[in-house]
Write a structure and sequence with these properties.
The complex is a heterodimer of chains A (319) and B (293). By secondary structure, chain A is mainly alpha-helical. Helix content of chain A is 63%, strand content 1%. Chain A has one domain. The chains are: A mainly alpha (319), B mainly alpha (293). Strand 1 of chain A pairs antiparallel with strand 1 of chain B, so a sheet runs across the interface. The structure holds protoporphyrin IX containing FE.
């Protein structure tokens, strides 16, 4: 095994085990299992429905009489069932299962308790609770006012805007992929990559000094960051407050324009009815949110590949 | 000896009017008892209808019970499937109830002040009967609730359940998501250990940089904000994470946010009912029908 996969032999398994067995990291291990499982489940149901939709599209006569779900149904069966016992028994079962899991988990694993709080002894790395590590990871790429305040606010407002900008009438109350590709693709990208993946990086990859440690790399507390951070304009040798200001603004505008343009072209070609349904405002908000998410991704990539610190430097703030 | 003892009643059975027979005739069978119990004033004062399998009484079982009446009497026959809802919203709520119970018990042992807080946690872990289990259940329940809230949101998205008429309830949900995470976060500081201290230090340091309201944020200093009057100071009750921050976290964690979250949950569940019960599994829509909308 290790001769075929030499990197496995080189991995520091103690370090790996240390990280995944930290009591407060165990929930993320759980998340790592549950997320793929439920995404798979949703797509399995979606495929069934999509097949049914295709079948009914092809056969309008059948569509008139079909009950339109993938679940068994016979003529004469009532469309509803009584909550007692059909729903309540399932709720009860779920309660029992959750209780058992919680008790076993609590018997087997103790909640962490470190030394008493000591402001003079900095924990290295100091990490927020795992569900905020995505935001903490964003601190690598952005100044705190963006990572800690602006982006979380935009995430919340963006989530709240979803029902008002997604005007696609299809897929209301059933799983589907083919009828909602843009909505589902965007949401899952945002959730799985821009949130869960960042949480995982923040938890398992970031070590002392918030430096990048590959999985299995020993956490070296004395490692110094020799990376030479540069602002984007320095790559191009631009100097002076205003040239630098307009360079950054221009770069961001060009990126935003390119992302927006390509997306718009794709939508126009592949989803013309999406354009038709949306008001100007709805389309603008959708595009702005989409472009912003992609710009964050661009910055992350620029930072991780070219060690770019800031893209836009101004006398008041940096982005 | 046992033989004679057990034989005795048999011998007496022929003896008409004997003590044993008299007693036996007075003892009622369980089903008779059950019947009589249900005729009593006491029983009738508590339960207002019969508990049999008739559709009417099954509906009444749900509708006349304050805890169950959040449910309708009947629902979409396929909505009960785990495949559809994953039971996620319900599990999230169940975890919240669990956390409220274990949290209340923890409060009996906890003083939110420097020095005492950490000692109380040690005390819970090593001295209080089942204290360690209690603390663990509260901790892991909280983590689990964050995960199930996320997954519930994913399921609601994937079934398109935020679409009309449920737009507003999705928004209530987003607020619940925020409050669930804040609830967990404020609890993190309470043991007053290194983990919580530094997590909250890192977390609230971001508040320094709030635009306009933070003393290190864009336009903050220009507006006169310092480390002693900005938004971070308001959160911590000071310029560093200390006794006041502990007390504030405690009050947010044990009183303010649970109340806010409970109110939002009440609205959330009410809206699920008012928006016509949960969204599906709904009949699939064909392209030609979508075009007409
Ligand atoms: C503390 C957190 C939450 C609790 C306790 C909760 C509870 C519930 C419950 C019990 C239901 C009934 C159906 C089901 O079990 O799936 C439900 C439905 C719903 N929830 Fe939540 N929820 C929470 C958070 C959220 C979040 C974060 C969102 C979205 C951002 C959300 C949006 C909705 C919507 C739109 C429905 C209607 C679903 C449908 O009709 O199919 N909820 N919620």
């Amino acid at each position: 095994m290790s001769t075929q996969l030499p990197f496995l032999a080189e991995m520091d398994w103690h370090q790996v085990w240390y990280l995944i067995s930290r009591p407060d990291n165990v929930p993320i291990v759980l998340l790592l299992i549950l997320c793929p499982f439920y995404v798979w489940l949703a797509f399995r149901e979606a495929r069934k429905n999509d097949n049914l939709i295709a079948q009914l599209e092809a056969d309008p006569e059948l569509a008139k009489t079909h009950h339109r779900t993938t679940y068994p149904y016979k003529k004469g069966w009532p469309k509803t069932v009584q909550v007692w016992p059909h729903l309540l028994k399932r709720e009860f079962l779920a309660m029992v299962i959750v209780t058992i899991i919680l008790i076993i988990w609590s018997i087997c694993l103790d909640a962490p308790l470190e030394d008493p709080a000591n402001p003079n002894l900095t924990m290295n790395p100091s990490k927020a609770p795992w569900y905020f590590l995505g935001l903490q990871e964003l601190l690598v790429y952005f100044d705190p006012w963006i990572a800690g305040v602006v982006l979380p606010s935009i995430i919340l407002l963006g989530l709240m805007a979803i029902p008002y900008i997604d005007v696609n009438p299809r897929g209301n109350g059933y799983y589907t992929w083919k009828q909602r590709k843009f909505a589902i693709g965007t949401f899952l990208f945002g959730f799985l990559v821009m949130w869960v993946l960042l949480v995982i990086i923040g938890t398992f990859i970031r070590g002392p000094g918030w430096l990048w440690f590959n999985p299995g790399e020993t956490w070296d507390h004395h490692r110094v960051d020799h990376q030479f951070n540069r602002d984007l304009h320095e790559f191009f040798g631009i100097e002076g407050t205003w040239p630098v200001f307009f360079f950054g603004l221009g770069f961001i505008s060009i990126c935003a324009g390119a992302i927006g343009g390509v997306t718009h072209a794709c939508i126009k070609k592949m989803m013309p009815d999406m354009l038709k349904r949306m008001s100007f405002l709805q389309y603008q908000v959708t595009m702005q949110l989409w472009i912003m998410m992609m710009l964050v991704l661009v910055k992350i990539i620029l930072r991780l590949t070219f060690v770019v610190k800031n893209v836009w430097v101004t006398p008041w703030f940096n982005v | 000896m046992t033989d004679t003892d057990t034989n005795k009643p048999d011998q007496e059975e022929g003896n008409k009017g004997g003590l044993f027979t008299t007693l036996r005739s007075k003892v009622k069978s369980p089903s008779e008892l059950n019947k009589e119990l249900k005729e009593t004033v006491l029983w009738k004062s508590i339960f207002r209808h019969k508990l049999d399998g008739s559709p009417r009484n099954r509906s009444l079982a749900v509708l006349s019970n304050v805890f169950l009446h959040l449910h309708p009497a009947r629902i979409n026959r396929d909505a009960v499937r785990y495949n559809f809802t994953w039971g996620m919203g319900g599990i999230t709520f169940y975890l919240f109830v669990n956390l409220t119970l274990t949290g209340t018990l923890l409060m009996f042992y906890f003083h939110p002040s420097k020095g005492e807080a950490y000692r109380d946690i040690m005390f819970l872990q090593y001295d209080v009967p089942f204290g360690n289990l209690l603390r663990n259940m509260h901790r892991w329940g909280a983590h689990a609730m964050v995960i199930t809230t996320w997954l519930h949101m994913v399921r609601v998205f994937m079934t398109g359940s935020y679409k009309p008429p449920r737009e507003f309830n999705w928004n209530i949900g987003v607020l619940l998501l925020l409050f669930t995470m804040l609830l967990s976060f404020t609890g993190y500081l309470l043991p007053d250990d290194q983990l919580g201290f530094w997590a909250v230090t890192v977390g609230t340091n971001m508040a320094r940089a709030t635009p306009i309201l933070g003393h290190e944020g864009p336009f903050g200093p220009e507006l006169g904000f310092t480390a002693f009057n900005d938004v971070r100071f308001a959160l911590l009750g000071g310029s560093v994470v200390d006794a006041n921050a502990l007390l504030r976290a405690y009050i947010w964690h044990c009183i303010a946010i649970p109340i806010l979250a409970s109110v939002l949950m009440i609205v959330h569940f009410w809206r699920v009912r008012k928006d016509g019960a949960i969204s599906g599994p709904a009949p699939v829509m064909l392209e030609s029908e979508a075009a007409r909308k």
